[in-house]
Design a protein that fits this description.
By secondary structure, the chain is mainly alpha-helical. It has one domain (15-102). It is 53% helix and 6% strand. The protein contains three helices and two strands; from the N terminus they run E-E-H-H-H. It has helices at residues 15-35, 47-55, 61-85, and strands at 2-4, 10-12. The chain has a two-stranded antiparallel ribbon with strand order 1-2. Strand 1 and strand 2 (10-12) form a beta hairpin. Helix 1 (15-35) runs antiparallel to helix 3 and helix 2 (47-55) crosses helix 3 (61-85). It is globular, with a radius of gyration of 15 Å. The two termini are 18 Å apart.
Length: 103
């Protein structure tokens, strides 16, 4: 669930929503790594390395990014189906997809 705060911030709660936001962050990081070679999101493993390890994607950064984007779209479609069927567990399904998911 995504909770908006009066000060302009927001909180993401629940393991599925946190995992989805992590996936979106990984996609953004890998886009940055493809566009700006040599730049990383953190000192740890690159988003490219994490995506390859977690999902078993193969290929160069651009190919892994394409695979990750396809995976994000599949997860979004599954979440939309859950909302339409009313099994998302959220009382207000309008909060299932924040504007950030559309980026």
């Amino acid at each position: 669930m995504i909770e908006a705060h009066e000060g302009g911030g927001f909180s993401i709660t629940g393991p599925e929503d946190i995992g989805f936001f992590r996936l979106l962050t990984m996609r953004a990081g890998l886009r940055m790594e493809v566009k700006h070679p040599g730049i990383r999101m953190s000192r740890g493993p690159t988003c490219y390395t994490i995506a390859r390890r977690e999902f078993g994607f193969r290929g160069n950064k651009a190919k892994v990014l394409a695979q990750l984007e396809a995976h994000v779209e599949a997860v979004k479609a599954a979440r939309e189906r859950d909302c339409e069927e009313g099994i998302c567990g959220d009382d207000d399904c309008r909060t299932c997809f924040p504007d950030i998911a559309a980026q």
